[in-house]
Write a structure and sequence with these properties.
The chain has helices at about 65-70, 75-80, 85-95, and strands at about 10, 15-20, 25-30, 40-45, 55-60. By secondary structure, the protein is of the alpha+beta class. The chain has a single domain (about 10-30, about 40-95), classed as Hypothetical Cytosolic Protein, Chain: A (2-Layer Sandwich), CATH 3.30.1230. Strand 1 (about 10) and strand 2 form a beta hairpin. The N and C termini lie far apart (about 35 Å).
Length: about 100
Amino acid sequence: MVMKKVPMRKCLGCGEMFPQKELVRVVKTRIKPENEEAEESFTVSLDLVGKKNGRGAYICKRSDCFEKARKAKRFPRALNCEIPEEIYDLMEKELKENE
């Protein structure tokens, strides 16, 4: 029987490699403008299931890894967008609830 390859991802906080299912995905999704003249905008959120569309980055389920990545500004670098502080606070709260 052939063994399946387990996808590995690197945590933005600690930099260690883990199986993808052990990490939480942070995803940047595009919001479609209501009219053609409006600019495209993006939203950043946690993807606990791992099925949302968009560009993703991975983080450990520990809150200290989240803080390391936030302090080092690794989320904006990985997702290619600026992230407001309110979004960070919401993600941190959601991460602590699911810890």
